[in-house]
Structures are given as C-alpha cells and as structure tokens.
Amino acid sequence: MPNVPGLRSIYHQVGGIVYFGRMLDKIRLQAAGALAADYVENLGIGFDGRCCNFLGIDYAALRDRTLRGGTDDEIMAWCREIGTARSDEEREVWNGFMMKRGWRDEATPRLKQRIKESGFEGKPIDTMFDYIEFDEGRDPVASRAWEQ
Predict the structure, then answer these.
(1) Both 3 and 48 in a single domain?
(2) Which residues contact 91 (CB under 8 A, 6 or more apart)?
C-alpha cells in the first residue's frame, strides 16, 4: 500500500494504546476522500474492530464522534466514558498483543504470504505491525518505532 499523507504509524500511541490514533486518521481521511481504496474496504473490521472491541465501543459511533471534531485525547476520553474503562495493565497487554500479531500465532501464515507477495523477503519483518510499516515506506526496526 502507498504511504498515505496524514496516516500515522501503527505504533503511535494515543491514551496509552497503539493503533487508536491511526484508526482516527483513517476515519478522517476517508471522510475527506483522501483514503486509498485498499484501506476503505477494511474500515471497522480487522484491527479497527479489535480496537473498538477492546475499548467497548461501536465503530459507527466512534466514526460519528470523530467526525464531530476534537483532539485525539478528547475522543479517547469519550471512549473511556461510554466504553470499557481499561487499566494500565490491560493497555499494556493490548499493546503487547497488537505489536506481536503475526509472530508465532494464527496470523503467521497470512503474514508470510503478504511478505512474499510484497517482495519483502529478507526484511526484518516479524509482525503485522512491522509489515504495515514497511508496506507504507517506513522502517520500524531502524526507527525502533515500538519505543516511541
């Protein structure tokens, strides 16, 4: 997939969790007509769905709230208010699970297939997060994206 201006790294954290900010970016970009079709078909499912389930919110409600405006932190506060409150430990577990998706789990065959299809053999890709970063033209290993 192409590097989409305005779509942040999958590792970026908002409110102590990875992926959430990226999901908000996709919502905003899609509403502006600036999100590539490859991304549009997965809105609300996949990692979006997992994130919404973790937060105890409905994707459509999150989309509507995001498009009403506000900062990422304000939208996260709204999620915490209407959804499931999560402890620091639960957020840590979420981040660990998401950042390791595709590494020695049921997503491994899919990850290997994507790596081959994209011609990324030989790149230091161990997880879906790493794959997405490389696919969008970023090198998460060189930048140590998981530490930022």
Answers:
(1) yes
(2) 15, 16, 17
Residue 39 is assigned to a structural domain of this protein: yes
> Could you tell me if 58 and 123 lie in one domain?
no
What stretches of the chain adopt beta strand conformation (E)?
13-14, 17-18
Residue 95 to residues 51, 57, 117, 121, 127, Cα–Cα distance (Å):
10, 18, 27, 26, 13
Indicate the pTM of the whole model: 0.91
**Structural domain of 114:** 100-136
Whether residue 21 contacts residue 29, with contact meaning beta carbons closer than 8 Å, is answered with no
Q: 39-56: per-residue pLDDT in tens?
A: 898 899 999 999 999 999
Residues paired with 14 in a beta bridge: 17
Phi, psi of 14 (to 5 degrees): -130, 130
